[in-house]
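Lab notebook, page 48
Experiment: co-folding of the full assembly
Goal: obtain a model of how the components sit together before planning crosslinking
Operator: M.T.
Materials (sequences as entered):
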Amino acid sequence: MRVIHASYASHCSTRRKLEKRPGISYSSLIHTKTRTVHDAMSNTQASVAVNGLYKIFGGDRDQALSLLEQGRHKDDIFADTGITVGVHDASFTVNPGEVFVIMGLSGSGKSTLLRMINRLIEPTAGQVLLHGQDVSKLSQKDLVQLRRREMAMVFQSFALMEHLKVWENVAFGLEVAGVHRERRRTRAMDTLDQVGLKPYAETYPDQLSGGMRQRVGLARALAVEPSVMLMDEAFSALDPLIRAEMQDELLRLQRDSRRSVIFISHDLNEAMRIGDRIAIMQAGAIVQIDTPKNILHKPANDFVRSFFRGVDLTEIYLAGDIARRDEALIIDAGTTDLRGLLPRLRGAEHQVGYVCGTERRFIGMVSVASLMQAVESNAASLDAALLDTQPVAAGSPLSGVIQAAAQSDQPVPVVDNDGAFRGAISHAQLLQTLNQKPGHEH
Amino acid sequence: MNIENGHIPVGDAIDALVEFLLNHFQPLFDVITTAIGSLTDALASTLLWVPGWVLTLLLAALAWGRVSWRFGLFTLASLSLLEGMNLWPESINTLALVLAATVVSLAIGLPLGIWAARRDAVDRLVRPVLDFMQTMPAFVYLIPAAMFFGLGRVPGVIATIIFSMPPAVRLTNLGIRQVPKELVEAGQAFGCTPMQLLFKVQIPTARKSIMAGINQNIMLALSMVVIASMIGAGGLGKEVLRGIQRLEVGVGFEGGIGVVLLAIILDRITQSFGDAHHTSVTRRLKALFSRNTDNR
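Observation: model returned without errors.
Model output:
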């Protein structure tokens, strides 16, 4: 319960500070913050809780803190005193099993923030709680133990040891922890199997491609079975195709066994794709924390909004998000009176009907034209009238819907995982969604 | 110690210092003399005890395994030539002097380089001393060395140690400083203690640079050992010196060629240890083996 109190106290103090700071809409933050506190209560304990974390580089720490308290911008402080404010009052919690993305431009302090969590960089002020334990107060000896057991890190440049074989790299964390050679080899092999690199165990990293090397980096982190994974721009050095592949890999690994992941990125598409929640950093401070969709709909300020200018909406929205059922005509698959169906179909939206079986299992679509043809040939069941349409899964991104929509004039039917009819997306609706600007509800 | 005729008596000061050291630290010099003398003698007598052809074959095999079969043949031919010129004992003596000097200068130089890489203050202190050691003409070391340690092998080895140590310190320092930051962070993030970080991450990653330092150390030692023959260190240098003193070009050249051949063999073999894991003997054999099985 200590975490919740601390986090709540910080929430209140953040509020006081934020009200003094211009340019940040607090109303959008309070929503997030309350939700975070609430989440922390619903899960017995957050994995990582960061409270009021500061990093000041060079110069007088108290002077810098008091200038920040006065609401001075970090650029002004640097110009006047030569003190660099790396991270300014960062607070957030990461829930167990959550992928938490920290986003920002280069120089926004996101890498510094990440490195303060495992103390590769010592925080100037503030708290980092891991399962309720204050990491910033640990002795060097305890810190080493904590790094060996609880946290693992994946690096942008992969940071593999070129003198070690692939499996030895994967076993590195276990080796420094003093695990017996046979046991760490077994564990390394299992982990390499998980990322699909077992056949390469005996090779050296310089014989692998970039994507494969980062799989080794990922396996090295997974091998120590950490409760928290810190990923520093882990996929930024990879080319776009491989990057998408690695994002899928991470999501797949998360499905198999959920870990808390803190992921640094400067790529919004990536953040939207893999993040359960995103924190956006600007000039050393966190300006917004929320789910990807909420950030898209209610950006906290113009800076956040500007982030979304280049974002690919077709990757953010899923078919299930915009499929609508309220106007759709649903026809029972057992109907035999085809002629009697015609007037209903003529009156329906887009003049199409969706044929469903028991428990609304989607069977197919009929149009006025296809139904008339079936009636003329005296068909006995609806089967003869079904159009040749493939439904789209609710979980697929809009890019998939666009493909389906391009192939027919009819709305695109959307089904759930179990094949139940979820609704349909008309061409007009698709265009409307793609045309929207961030920050506006559709 | 007066300034006379516009001459600043730096030399007098040095003389006084040497005098002082000789008077007060003779027991220390005796200990060093004994230690280095017995190390060099042990190395020389061991290498001479092994029959020449055995040592030749061993070195040729090492050259084949580490470098290439061509270089193995070259080593075989070179060492046979040395034996053929009746310069085998001289060559072995030179080798023993080089090895003894290298062992001692690495034992001091590598830890010093590591220390300088970890502490900027040490680096600032060590740097000018190394500059001094490297640029001071090599002959100058011979005088105090002979005064402190007498004539013979020991002062030769000591002058060689001083002359050849700087590259090992410098390149170790540089190599460790050049280990990528993220690699050091990776080591720390996975829970290395400072010692583990040094031995499992920094030194292996800096290996190429450190091995280049060791290689340079050996090369400089070889060149100094020849000069050290002037104070009676013996070996191939003695032949060169005799050639000069008697104006016998042939004798001088025989010794010279011996030095060159030894230098090439030592250089290529030590260099091969600086290359990445590719050239390790086991890997080479594995590659050979898999090629054979592929052919079947």
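Interpretation: Chain A has a mean pLDDT of 82.
Next step: discuss with group before ordering constructs.
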